[in-house]
Design a protein that fits this description.
This protein is 54% helix and 5% strand. It is mostly helical and 94 residues long. Strands 1-2 form a two-stranded antiparallel sheet. About 14% of the residues have low confidence.
Length: 94
């Protein structure tokens, strides 16, 4: 499946590059930028980054997955106070 349309990169290419980087003892941690450089290209619009991150961490070892899930947990922490006062203000017509 095509993930990055700017560089025409598929999920298979990205996954393989991330795995190669993990297996290299002197390799860098797979990030979107480093994986792109590993593939000889560079990010352009960055619109694919959320999907690139998902793909390159799908097959990650347990230690890497832990940090990804920790990041997900912290990023999904949404305030539970959902007072609609501002929403009402914004949607008020008149
Ligand atoms: S879609 Fe990947 S850099 Fe633009």
């Amino acid at each position: 499946m095509l993930v990055c349309s700017c560089n025409v990169l598929t999920d298979d290419q990205l996954r393989k590059a991330a795995e190669e980087m993990r297996q290299d003892p002197n390799g860098k941690m797979p990030t979107p930028g480093s994986v792109f450089r590993h593939l000889g290209c560079r990010p352009r619009c960055g619109g694919c980054f959320p999907n690139v991150i998902k793909v390159i961490h799908e097959e990650a070892p347990a230690s890497s997955e832990r940090s990804v899930s920790a990041a997900k947990t912290s990023s999904t922490a949404v305030p539970t106070d959902t007072s609609n006062d501002k929403t009402k203000e914004l949607t008020h017509e008149g």
